[in-house]
Amino acid sequence: MSDAPTNTNGGAPVLDVDPGIPSGSPKLAPWELRFTSYDVEAFEVPRGREEQWRFTPLRRLRGLHDASVTADGRIDVSVVSGFGDAAADLAGSGTRHETVGRDDPRLGDGGIPADRVAAQAWSSFTEAHVVTVNEARSDDEPLTITVGGPGAGATAFAHMQLRLEHHAQAVVVLDHRGSGTVAANTEFVVADGAKLEVVEVHDWADDAVYVGAQHLSVGRDATIRHTSVTLGGDLVRLSPVINYRAPGGDVELDGLYFADGGQHFEQRLLVDHSVPNCRSRVMYKGALQGVEGGTAAHTVWIGDVLIRKAAEGTDTYELNRNLLLTDNARADSVPNLEIETGEIVGAGHASATGRFDDEQLFYLMARGIPEAQARRLVVRGFFGEVIQKVRVPALRDRLEAAIEAELEVVGV
């Protein structure tokens, strides 16, 4: 078992169910049957019948879930100031990038693994990347972190932590690309009064498998705007967890995913309101399509929101919408809301999955727009609400171009 840093669980109830973890190490947080641990052996090997894994095609994980695979590659990480052609080194930017060992005491500040793959990634990584922002960066100068896969046929375990110190501010693009198989933990640690806007892009090659846990730690009066974009890869499974550390935290989670035939994209969210007077908003939108006669595209969105007894004054809402562009596509959407106190500002959820809106198509075609072009306009409008929140113009253009390329696949 690997050494684990000292950590707390954000004021949530704790239960020590693993006597093998040293005294002073993180405890396991109960919520229904959910618990957390750095020890991979604390989790049973998934069989596909568990609630946490019932939608995931385990045979396509290439052994990440049962320890039948070992790391034979590594990820490449680069950090620059700016995006695209405007990128420059970090000198004088109030930001530093460090490569550290697993004994660095900061690791684990964001959260603790909550499934076997995340625990395996924790136990198996050899070096971690820590990016720290110490001051308020200009919104016009984003920070770009590029993560490259280990290469076709190779496997890597990864760990990254993005830290914003007190009252720091940054816009960050976290860009994943390349080939291979990757299991990773990514921590976003946002201190009191800090503000983070991050766009996490998964534009992997067709052969890639990526299973990632995102741990978002929100300080007092801190703000996180997290946008997740999934466009490429054979299988991509993301599990963001929001952990409020003190009152006043404000989190928005937005997501966009576009799956072609044969792709499996899965999003499993937990927003854990454990302290008073915090806010959360969740909005994910997905489109699915497949080539006739080919393997169906499949997306999964699980949105869990928990409002604990101590979390009075909570204000939360979550929404998931899916647009089916062809017959051979499947979208599973399961919003869950558990409330343990009546003293809240508001709470709600919504989910909808369907085909093109015939009224929208009729409206456009009645004004002389050909059907194919009308369908494209509907898809652009469907995703527009999410894309417009991306405040990096060059990245926004790239996402719009990627969606156009996806639509070309089946001639929509």
TrEMBL record:
Domain SUF system FeS cluster assembly SufBD core: 152-382
SUPFAM superfamilies in the record: Stabilizer of iron transporter SufD
Record field: compositional bias (Polar residues): 1-10
Transmembrane intervals: none
Domain of life of the native organism: Bacteria
Region Disordered: start-end pairs: 1-23
NCBIfam families: sufD
Family: Belongs to the iron-sulfur cluster assembly SufBD family.
UniProt xrefs under PANTHER family: PROTEIN ABCI7, CHLOROPLASTIC
Annotated protein name in UniProt: Fe-S cluster assembly protein SufD
Organism: Actinomycetospora chibensis
Lineage: Bacteria, Bacillati, Actinomycetota, Actinomycetes, Pseudonocardiales
